[in-house]
């Protein structure tokens, strides 16, 4: 078979060019072109049929561009479209070329069937999903699959959100319980706001139909603690033995509220004008309302206005009254206010009311005397601005801390007037100011253990000691009487080492004489023998009166049978 005939092994396929590349020569024919291809006439474009089409549709220039892949929105390659056009029109020197290989695209996924497959797969795990989750606009509860009980929701940031720095969800629940218990009937707006708490007005409607009673509710701040100086009031206080709980603000504020509740109880029991504490729950304190019947609170001493009816300064009686309250607070209640000023005192009709005693400390507090001097300074500065002739800070301190003295009216006012009469005259204002500053910053010992230089204080007169008012006012033996007695004994011819001293020493020594030594090793042998013989006789007599065991069993057996 010749190579020129079609279908022979030596001839090239119609779709493969019979050319090969040779270096320095280019493309050269490797074999002769078959005669049927060389002599074949070119066919028209209308005679060229689609090879991959099922329908016998001839190509036409009038075909839609979308059919050729060049329609609007087609994302195909424009180069492939141009090559297809050129091949179909026989642009290669009028000779037809082989058709391009079909590049059929994969069909797009059926989305609906895909979703059905996902549903069937998820249906296997449907039983494992928790379907008992109930979502509500106000609450969020999660149930228990086993018991069906409703569990509380987890804590959320919204639960700790506060209004006016005090009103959170927990505080509202406490107020709601107080209303349900009949402690208050309504809670109104804020009366005053401070660094540690807010005070709100409340009303109690009695069941008997009488006039409503006004109440004051003090709510301590727990979210944002503006009052950060609690440490110096707590350290050393026996009610805070473990110190301040800095990790739990609510617990610390709760103890702070309990402290004010107890302090107000002390003041009210002592007869000092103050709001009566009624109820305490966590950090919410219900007190008596200090105001008129219309619900208006009494003004603070700083905002009070006094009428000038007489020639005397109207603030002087108020000053004397406040000094008496400070002494009763110290001696009767055993407390120091520690923050006494014109802001923590209410005034109405020539009467003072003490409020805000949460930071008050007892005498045993390490800084009790320091806080007392601070209160004296604040009170003196305010009344001096009002034109009152005030007493010296040292005189007021001695008056308040004196062990002996009146603690009730009108004796207190008379004692203060006596201080005005007996005070020394001021010769130099500069020297007086220096003395006041030295007293305010001087260390005052509370006990004899805190006196750091006893030898120096022993040589000083008692009147010059800063703690002379806290010393005992009676002594067992006076030094002057002892000296006079020694001088009389010397005149009589007796010396200090005479018989009187010896007799007193003998009497004192007899008190400390030791008795006979105790223990068996120090006993006498005859006494030991006698004691042993006595014990033996007692045991022998006891055995003689003892009932034999066999007889005791018979008695017990017979008594049990009779009972049956």
UniProtKB/TrEMBL annotation:
It catalyses: L-threonyl-[protein] + ATP = O-phospho-L-threonyl-[protein] + ADP + H(+); L-seryl-[protein] + ATP = O-phospho-L-seryl-[protein] + ADP + H(+). Residues 48-67, 482-494 have a biased composition (Acidic residues). Pfam families: RIO1 (PF01163). Residues 156-402 form the RIO kinase domain. Keywords: ATP-binding, Cytoplasm, Hydrolase, Kinase, Magnesium, Metal-binding, Nucleotide-binding, Ribosome biogenesis, Serine/threonine-protein kinase, Transferase. The keyword Oxidoreductase does not apply. Belongs to the protein kinase superfamily. RIO-type Ser/Thr kinase family. This is Serine/threonine-protein kinase RIO1. It comes from Podospora pseudopauciseta.
């Amino acid at each position: 078979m010749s190579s020129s005939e079609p279908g022979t092994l030596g001839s090239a396929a119609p779709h493969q060019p019979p050319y090969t590349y040779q270096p320095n020569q280019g493309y050269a024919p490797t074999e002769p072109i078959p005669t049927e291809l060389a002599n074949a006439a070119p066919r028209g474009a209308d005679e060229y049929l689609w090879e991959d089409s099922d329908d016998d549709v001839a190509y036409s220039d009038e075909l839609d561009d979308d059919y050729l892949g060049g329609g609007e929105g087609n994302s195909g390659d424009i180069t492939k479209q141009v090559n297809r056009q050129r091949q179909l029109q026989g642009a290669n020197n009028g000779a037809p070329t082989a058709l391009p290989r079909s590049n059929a695209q994969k069909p797009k996924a059926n989305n609906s069937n895909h979703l059905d497959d996902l549903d069937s797969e998820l249906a296997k795990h449907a039983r494992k999903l928790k379907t008992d989750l109930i979502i509500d606009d106000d609450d969020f509860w999660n149930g228990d699959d086993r018991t069906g009980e409703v569990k509380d929701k987890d804590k959320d940031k919204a639960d700790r959100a506060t209004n006016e720095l005090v009103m959170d969800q927990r505080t509202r629940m406490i107020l709601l319980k107080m209303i349900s218990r009949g402690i208050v009937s309504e809670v109104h707006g804020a009366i005053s706001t401070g660094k540690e708490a807010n005070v709100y007005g409340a009303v109690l409607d009695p069941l008997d139909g009488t006039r409503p009673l006004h109440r004051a509710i003090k709510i301590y701040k727990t979210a944002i603690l503006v009052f950060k100086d609690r440490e110096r009031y707590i350290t050393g206080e026996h009610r805070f033995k473990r110190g301040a709980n800095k990790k739990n603000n609510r617990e610390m504020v709760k103890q702070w509220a309990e402290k004010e509740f107890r302090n107000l109880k002390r003041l009210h029991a002592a007869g000092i004008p103050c709001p009566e504490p009624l109820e305490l729950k966590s950090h919410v304190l219900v007190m008596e309302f200090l105001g008129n019947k219309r619900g208006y609170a009494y003004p603070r001493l700083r905002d009070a206005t006094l009428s000038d009816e007489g020639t005397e300064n109207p603030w002087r009686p108020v000053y004397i009254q406040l000094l008496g309250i400070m002494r009763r607070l110290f001696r009767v209640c055993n407390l120091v206010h520690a923050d006494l000023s014109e802001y923590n005192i209410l005034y109405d009709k020539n009467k003072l009311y003490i409020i805000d005693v949460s930071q008050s400390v007892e005498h045993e507090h390490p800084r009790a005397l320091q806080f007392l001097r601070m209160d004296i300074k604040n009170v003196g500065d305010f009344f001096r601005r009002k034109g009152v002739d005030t007493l010296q800070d040292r005189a007021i301190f001695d008056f308040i801390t004196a062990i002996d003295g009146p603690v009730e009216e009108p004796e207190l006012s008379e004692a203060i007037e006596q201080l005005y009469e007996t005070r020394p005259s001021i010769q130099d204002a500069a020297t007086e100011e220096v003395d006041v500053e030295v007293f305010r910053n001087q260390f005052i010992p509370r006990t004899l253990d805190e006196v750091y230089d006893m030898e120096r204080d022993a040589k000083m007169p008692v009147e010059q000691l800063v703690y002379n008012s806290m010393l005992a006012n009676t002594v067992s033996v006076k030094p002057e009487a002892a000296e006079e007695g020694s001088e009389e004994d010397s005149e009589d011819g007796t010396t200090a080492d005479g018989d009187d001293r010896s007799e007193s020493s003998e009497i004192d020594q007899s008190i400390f004489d030791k008795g006979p030594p105790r223990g068996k090793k120090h006993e006498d042998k005859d006494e030991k023998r006698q004691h042993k013989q006595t014990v033996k006789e007692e045991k022998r007599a006891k055995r003689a009166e003892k009932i034999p065991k066999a007889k005791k069993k018979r008695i017990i057996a017979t008594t049990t049978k009779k009972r049956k």
